[in-house]
């Protein structure tokens, strides 16, 4: 007896994404899936003040659902709405400012869930777009260094590789998920995946393109939001457990840092100065899900 194909829901929370949302949806339309089919694409325009909703409407077909919120509610609430609306056997949540690296992205990111019922959450690999300036080149190099470190940590089962920009959720897991406003949504999904008894997988072959910040101000926002999110988790969950999730052995950090210094000494040294500045700045944003976005990292294509 032939079973019907698995259904896939794509969820896209979008805030002022008029430049990115159409290229992303067009890229999703060209995805090739062999073990499932994209049944619906749910886009939430979360209080957008630009033409995000118009761009989505221009691409309407029977698979696209647009939800427009007049007032911004924030990323966590938008993702909760996607959870409530989703009907797919597998849910893929994508940031609106990423692009699949190839036409097999969806298949690659859902394969671990199809092949193992224990898997509840899958994260994609993040590939930095070609830098447009000197500062972005420094940050892109630092991202590559950090990503190599994360991939060498605990057999790629770690909180750093749960990238919020692109994840797949099994139905069994996403039916039990709900994001509180005050927590970093990517790290929270990793923690809840393990707490609910599911397994996490990172898939290197499932890749999306993103853009690094192009100026210090935007990088500061992203970095401080990460620091604040980690602190909030430590205060709200078992602090020793959260510290264990985030622990990187010193030998591993130094090994990868040495490789980066040897290959790109100027870029890596510049980033070390930036990292010290971020840590010493003392500025911390609120980690409510309505955080201020980093505008210079929003446009993937140029």
What are the salient characteristics of this protein?
alpha/beta, Spore Coat Polysaccharide Biosynthesis Protein SpsA, Chain A, 8-stranded mixed β-sheet, 43% helix
Describe this structure in words.
- The protein is α/β, with parallel strands linked by helices and 302 residues long.
- The protein has one domain: Spore Coat Polysaccharide Biosynthesis Protein SpsA, Chain A, CATH 3.90.550.10.
- It contains eleven helices and eight strands.
- The chain has helices at 21-29, 52-57, 75-85, 105-115, 134-151, 171-174, 185-195, 216-236, 239-246, 250-263, 265-281, and strands spanning 6-14, 36-46, 64-69, 90-94, 99-100, 119-128, 166-170, 199-210.
- α1 links the parallel β1 and β2 (36-46).
Strand order of the largest sheet: 3-2-1-4-7-6-8-5
Q: Name the CATH homologous superfamily.
A: Spore Coat Polysaccharide Biosynthesis Protein SpsA, Chain A
Q: What is the total domain count?
A: 1
Pairing-aware structural class of the strands and helices? alpha/beta
Q: What is the highest CATH level, the class? A: Alpha Beta
With helices defined by DSSP (H or I, 4 residues minimum), what is the helix count? 11
How far apart are the first and last residues' alpha carbons, in Å? 49 Å
Number of strands: 8
Question: Helices and strands, in N-to-C order?
Answer: EHEHEHEEHEHEHHEHHHH
Strand content range: 15-25%
* Main sheet overview: 8 strands, mixed
- CATH architecture title: Alpha-Beta Complex
Unreliable spans are none
Give a short synopsis of this structure.
The chain is an alpha/beta fold and 302 residues long. Helices cover 43% and strands 20% of the residues.
